[in-house]
């Protein structure tokens, strides 16, 4: 039994208040990294907008030991832990009679495979996204079911693309067909969601904060005890609700304390601001993502490198033009060159995420060994707004379930949802079909 | 004098048995009308002839049987008889197409039943029992403001509260989840840091963004009353500077559309004294003083009174607490991306803030007197936070937090630590009314003065009682009817009663929905953020004027004035109003505005994005003004058919007529639609129109009782004559629901009728009505649960 001395008298009291008390959920308190336990598969979904220059992305040969193209070059160090997948499509991103709006449809279909309703109003509709299906299942074991992150701010409201609501381009995560989830781009807000309003992940600082929270909860509990004595039984039910909330938070504190003792977390100070430079911003988010996986705060994260249709100018690599404008290059070699440079930068950032995951120990290996991280776009050719032959990479070993170092080419228009379904399956999320899937994607292992 | 005597007597009964309590009530209310002596056998015969056919033990139509009820003791079955009273008095029973008694017999039956029920309630009052009540978001924000003078609306960071019975202050549905508890802990930490000042706080950056269009509205209006006149666009916000220190303020402008113009940053680093301050960034208006009549393009450089070539650089002003602290020059730009404030740097000290002077009622001269001083501070704070006298049992645990904080820092850190704990205490977060010790189940008792103080302050201020209320409660004077009335008037005069306008008015009239309506930009290109804001302002100011000037609640439906600015006046087709500030405007005779039903806010929240909805408007009036909400529609309602059988385009009226052919639909739509049609001259954003899609508007309607009327003017007349009783009853019910924080029950019927009767004597003036609510039995009393 891992019950501290402090909490025992309180629990005795809880009985006195007429609360039905289950013993603390010991299962939930065992950190996921305990030795001998089957490693937990984490899922990540990284989105890049506006497609990529496919000629400089697609490896020239298929199968094992394929040569890395210029855009993919920075992923070579992770060769053994990744697959390049060609031929996948999100055909429901096509107009299908709805006219313009491919960027909106790209964002909306990426993880859903569902053709979105064309509207700028409140009656938006797409489908539940793969990350959220997984979150429903995997979230049972973690404090946060999922995280939805981004780099660009998410302030646009109203219509964003040819009569489509901005919701379609702002996020790729949909809790339900009608509930798009807003992305968080502020590292401080993310830090606070993960670690409360402590100042640092430093062990002593965390312990001090947990201690403080515990003493406040003790005080609140005894106050309720006193209040409970002076009120009628019917009023006490409301107070019991407070006690149940306390019990829940205590359980979290207890878990955090155990982790604090057993896990060596890298020390990260609470971020103070949103970094100005894209690269700095991205790397800070990456650090926090790795922490979220490492501490098992969540097992599902989606991350948008920019919102779909983004016109961000990547000044750090000396490109002053907006990304979206450039992708309509009309075969101007100079513009194509600039887009390819942006694509390289994005892949380099993805490599930084893989590097971080690889450097983070997890059970008998590292986080990269135990994750499945999808990278890609729901637009292939940004100039022509195509939704087939999408640029897709799957990184991570999936806890021994994926054999890397291969370029797999699938028949034209194979649904990307087949891959999403296969990812869910490998993460232990039961699902037979999803959106426009036809089967689980084969050949991964 | 008499009032005082009665009061004392009633207080005595606190510990006595129920029957005695009831007897005293009977004495105190002899001035109320006694039941008329009408032969009960006539009423029984009437019920047997017209009601029992359906409402008997076997059929139990609508779940109600009137068979075998004791007509001499209607109090025993008060719940059922209240339903009967409501259905019969509003003409809903007997149903159409069934035999009904003569009107005179109906009115005699209603008089008898009402009298009998009221009489029974006087003998045996039932004030009900509001549940333990967690502070909702608005109440939490206001309580923090009034307790610690930290006006940063921390409640906005809490999850949205559930509502019930149309309001979000209903004790039964205000739950507490683990996520909420964590938020409370985090808010307590943040608030206590700001209130006291924490010298070790690390610098952070906060960003503030303007609304869409980079803060630049379609006509370049002034966007906030906190910005100077003749300013255009930008944004204004409040920022709590945590310490006397230096701060960096950065105004970021976005890259323009084609990314040719890079994002730029305009920085100013300066020393600022701690406390809540207003920060604004705006563009001074040059040249034309009057807004252009036609909305212009959103581009910022399109500058009224100047041609593009003249624009070299635009001035952009940074304001702090009403003073311009910096003028930047910006190139042509699309507006402001965000304003970032970071700090504190080079900390000079905690400074002197309103919060600190409120908290530190003493200053320890030496270390020896620190603990007594801390105790004094915490006792004073806890009394206000817990809204009752406090004892060592309350203060000692807080002192322990003080000592823990003191060990790690200075005296102020100790106090901060104690405040942090206090703000998560159930005594602060919950309103708990304790039953007197040792009373039997089912006992009716008068609230003690402290609980009464809280009921008043949460009703009228959505906040904790102030020192005066607590003082009066301490002296047991608050329950004195004269003092109570005087306090209610004082509280309504106080600016804190703005919370009543926004929380009660905002929810009763559904104004809160105004924030989320999205009129179709194609169909209503003139709708924008300025108009949305103006709609809300008009109704809030109008509602407030009726409250503050103590006008009759009938003025809500019909008034010869409203509040307008240029934008809204033009929308209404009223000329001669200039500028973005709101002012009271007398309406010309024959104006199609005046009263809630002619206001853009109400008309827009009851419309669809692309068209009006006679159904929603009719339903809104039935539900919120007449207290007769139609039941929800059955499942599988087919869409309206825009084309007739011959393929011709149908007007909405014709489409609704097709819909009403179905008798199931007709039963409700016959009540809703005619009311909605009377408002058809207002389009989906409340603009006056005489035709829709080429067809002349027909604003006539016929109510189920045969009344025929046309247009909003006649609808108002009908509401104010034939339906005025329903209207005053509905307003009273909404008020009482909000005041008690619980759903009303049949047993509240007599109290509602009593309030309505008393308010009639002063023509239902708003403040009078509120005052009468506060002296009603359900507001001042409570009942212990029955076994």
Keyword list:
heterodimer; A: 445 residues; alpha/beta; Alkaline Phosphatase, subunit A; 8-stranded mixed β-sheet; two-stranded antiparallel sheet; 12 helices; disordered N terminus; B: 787 residues; alpha+beta; Jelly Rolls; 4-stranded antiparallel β-sheet; 27 helices; 18 strands; 40% helix; 13% strand
Give the SSE layout.
The complex is a heterodimer of chains A (445) and B (787).
Chain A: H1 7-16, H2 26-29, E1 42-47, E2 63-64, E3 82-89, H3 102-109, H4 130-138, E4 147-150, E5 159-161, E6 164-165, H5 167-170, E7 174-176, E8 179-180, H6 187-195, H7 203-230, H8 233-262, H9 278-294, E9 300-304, H10 323-327, H11 333-358, E10 361-362, E11 365-366, E12 371-376, E13 392-395, E14 406-415, H12 416-426
Parallel strand pairs in A: 1-9, 1-12, 3-14, 4-9
Antiparallel strand pairs in A: 2-14, 3-13, 5-6, 7-8, 10-11, 12-13
Helix pairs in contact in A: 4-12, 6-9, 7-8, 9-11
Chain B: H1 2-12, H2 18-28, H3 40-50, H4 78-89, H5 103-123, E1 133-134, H6 137-148, H7 178-196, E2 204-208, E3 231-241, E4 244-253, E5 264-272, E6 275-284, E7 314-320, E8 323-330, E9 338-349, H8 354-359, H9 370-386, H10 392-408, H11 411-422, H12 426-429, E10 430-431, E11 444-446, H13 449-460, H14 467-474, H15 481-493, H16 498-508, H17 529-548, E12 561-564, H18 566-571, E13 583-586, H19 600-605, H20 614-624, H21 652-660, H22 663-677, E14 691-692, E15 695-696, E16 700-702, E17 708-710, H23 711-720, H24 724-740, H25 749-760, H26 766-774, H27 777-780, E18 781-783
Antiparallel strand pairs in B: 1-10, 2-9, 3-6, 4-5, 4-9, 6-7, 7-8, 11-18, 12-13, 14-15, 16-17
């Amino acid at each position: 039994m891992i019950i501290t001395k402090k909490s025992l008298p309180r629990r005795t009291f809880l009985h006195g208040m007429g609360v039905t008390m289950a013993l603390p959920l010991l299962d939930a308190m065992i950190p996921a990294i305990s030795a001998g336990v089957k490693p937990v598969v984490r899922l990540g979904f990284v989105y890049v907008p506006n497609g990529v220059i496919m000629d400089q992305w697609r490896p020239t040969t298929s199968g094992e030991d394929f040569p890395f193209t210029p855009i993919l070059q920075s992923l070579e160090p992770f060769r053994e832990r990744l697959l390049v997948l060609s031929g996948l499509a999100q055909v429901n991103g096509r107009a299908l009679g709805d006219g313009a709006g491919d960027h909106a449809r790209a964002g909306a279909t990426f993880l859903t495979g569902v053709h979105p309703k064309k509207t700028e109003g409140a009656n938006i509709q797409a489908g539940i996204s793969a990350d959220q299906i997984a979150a429903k299942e995997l979230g049972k074991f973690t404090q946060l079911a999922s995280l939805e992150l981004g780099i660009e701010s998410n302030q646009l409201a109203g219509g964003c693309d040819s009569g489509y609501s901005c919701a379609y381009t702002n996020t790729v995560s949909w809790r339900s067909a009608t509930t798009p989830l807003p992305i968080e781009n502020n590292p401080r807000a993310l830090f606070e969601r993960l670690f409360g309003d402590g100042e640092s992940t430093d062990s002593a600082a965390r312990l001090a904060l947990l201690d403080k929270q515990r003493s406040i909860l003790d005080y609140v509990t005894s106050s309720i005890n006193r209040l409970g004595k002076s009120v009628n039984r019917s009023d006490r039910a409301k107070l019991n609700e407070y006690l149940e909330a306390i019990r829940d938070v205590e359980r979290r504190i207890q878990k955090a304390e155990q982790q604090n003792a057993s896990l060596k977390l890298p020390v990260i100070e609470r971020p103070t601001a949103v970094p100005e430079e894209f690269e700095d911003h991205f790397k800070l988010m990456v650090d926090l993502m790795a922490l979220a996986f490492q501490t098992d705060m969540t097992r599902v994260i989606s991350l948008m490198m920019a919102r779909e249709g983004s016109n961000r100018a990547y000044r750090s690599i000396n490109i002053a033009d907006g990304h979206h404008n450039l992708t309509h290059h009309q075969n101007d070699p100079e513009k194509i060159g600039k887009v390819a440079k942006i694509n390289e930068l994005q892949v380099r950032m993805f490599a930084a995420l893989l590097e971080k995951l690889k450097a983070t120990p997890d059970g008998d290996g590292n986080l990269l060994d135990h994750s499945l991280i999808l990278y890609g776009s729901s637009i292939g050719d940004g100039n022509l707004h195509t939704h087939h032959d999408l640029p897709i990479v799957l990184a991570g070993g999936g806890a021994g379930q994926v054999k890397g170092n291969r370029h797999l080419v699938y028949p034209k228009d194979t649904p990307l949802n087949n891959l999403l379904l296969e990812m869910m399956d490998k993460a232990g999320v039961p699902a037979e079909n999803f959106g426009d899937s036809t089967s689980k994607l084969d050949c991964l292992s | 004098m008499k009032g005082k005597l009665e009061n004392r007597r009633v207080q005595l009964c606190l510990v006595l048995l129920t029957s005695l309590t009831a007897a005293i009530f009977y004495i105190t209310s002899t001035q109320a009308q006694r039941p008329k002596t009408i032969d009960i056998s006539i009423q029984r015969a009437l019920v047997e002839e017209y009601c029992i056919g359906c409402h008997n033990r076997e059929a139990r139509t609508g779940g109600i049987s009137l068979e075998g009820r004791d007509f001499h003791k209607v109090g025993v079955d008060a719940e059922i008889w209240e339903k009967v009273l409501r259905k019969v008095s509003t003409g809903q029973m007997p149903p159409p197409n069934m035999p009904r008694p003569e009107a005179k017999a109906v009115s005699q039956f209603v008089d008898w039943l009402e009298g009998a029920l009221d009489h029974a309630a006087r003998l045996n009052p039932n004030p009900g029992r509001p549940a333990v009540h967690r502070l909702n978001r608005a109440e939490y924000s206001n309580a923090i403001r009034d307790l610690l003078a930290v006006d940063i609306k921390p409640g906005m960071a809490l999850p949205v509260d559930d509502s019930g019975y149309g309001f979000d202050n209903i004790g039964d549905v205000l739950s507490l989840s683990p996520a909420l508890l964590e938020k409370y802990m985090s808010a307590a930490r943040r608030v206590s840091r700001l209130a006291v000042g924490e010298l070790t706080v690390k610098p952070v950056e906060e960003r503030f963004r303007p609304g869409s269009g980079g803060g630049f509205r379609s006509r370049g209006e002034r966007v906030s009353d906190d910005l100077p006149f003749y300013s255009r666009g930008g944004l204004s916000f409040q920022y709590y500077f945590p310490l006397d220190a230096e701060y960096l303020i950065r105004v970021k402008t976005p890259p323009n559309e084609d990314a040719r113009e890079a994002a730029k940053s305009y920085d100013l680093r300066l020393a600022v004294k701690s406390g809540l301050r207003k920060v604004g960034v705006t563009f001074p208006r040059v040249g034309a003083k009057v807004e252009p009549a036609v909305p212009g393009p959103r581009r910022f450089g399109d500058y009224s009174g100047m041609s593009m070539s003249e624009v070299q650089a635009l001035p952009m002003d940074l304001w702090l607490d009403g003073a311009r602290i910096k003028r930047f020059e910006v190139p042509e730009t699309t507006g402001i991306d965000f304003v970032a404030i970071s700090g504190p740097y080079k900390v000079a000290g905690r400074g002197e803030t309103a919060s600190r002077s409120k908290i530190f009622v003493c200053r320890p001269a030496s270390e020896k007197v620190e603990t007594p001083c801390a105790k004094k501070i915490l006792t004073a704070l806890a009394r206000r936070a817990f809204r009752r006298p406090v004892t060592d049992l309350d203060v000692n645990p807080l002192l322990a937090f003080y000592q823990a904080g003191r060990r790690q820092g200075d005296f102020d850190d100790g106090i901060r630590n104690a405040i942090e704990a206090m703000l998560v205490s159930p005594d602060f977060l919950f309103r708990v009314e304790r039953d007197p010790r040792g009373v039997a189940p089912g006992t009716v008792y008068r609230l003690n003065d402290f609980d009464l103080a809280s009921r008043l302050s949460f009703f009228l201020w959505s906040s904790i009682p102030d020192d005066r209320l607590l003082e009066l409660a301490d002296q047991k004077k608050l329950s004195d009817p004269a003092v109570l009335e005087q306090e209610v008037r004082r509280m309504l005069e106080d600016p804190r009663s703005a919370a009543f306008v926004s929380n009660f008015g905002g929810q009763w009239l559904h104004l809160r929905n105004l924030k989320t309506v999205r009129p179709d930009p194609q169909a209503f290109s003139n709708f924008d953020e300025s108009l949305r804001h103006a709609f809300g302002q008009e109704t809030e100011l109008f509602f407030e004027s009726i409250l503050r000037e103590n006008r009759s609640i009938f003025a809500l439906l019909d008034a010869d004035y409203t509040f307008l600015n240029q934008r809204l006046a033009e929308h209404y087709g009223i000329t001669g109003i200039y500028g973005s500030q709101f002012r009271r405007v007398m309406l010309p005779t024959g104006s199609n505005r005046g009263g809630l039903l002619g206001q853009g806010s109400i008309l827009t929240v009851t419309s669809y994005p692309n068209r009006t909805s006679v159904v929603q408007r009719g339903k809104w009036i039935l539900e919120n003004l007449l207290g007769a909400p139609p039941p929800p529609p059955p499942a599988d309602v087919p869409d309206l058919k825009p084309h007739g059988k011959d393929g011709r385009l149908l007007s909405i009226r014709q489409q609704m007529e097709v819909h009403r052919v179905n008798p199931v639909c007709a039963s409700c739509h016959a009540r809703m639609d005619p009311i909605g049609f009377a408002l058809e001259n207002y389009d989906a954003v409340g603009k006056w129109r005489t035709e829709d899609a080429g067809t002349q508007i027909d604003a006539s309607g016929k109510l189920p009782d045969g009344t025929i009327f046309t247009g909003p003017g006649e609808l108002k007349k009908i509401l104010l004559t034939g339906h005025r009783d329903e209207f005053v009853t509905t307003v009273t019910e909404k008020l009482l629901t909000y005041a008690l924080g619980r759903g009303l029950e049949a047993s509240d019927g007599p109290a509602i009728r009593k309030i309505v009767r008393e308010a009639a004597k002063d023509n239902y003036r708003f403040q009078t009505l509120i005052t009468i609510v506060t002296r009603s039995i359900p507001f001042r009393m409570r009942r212990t649960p029955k076994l």
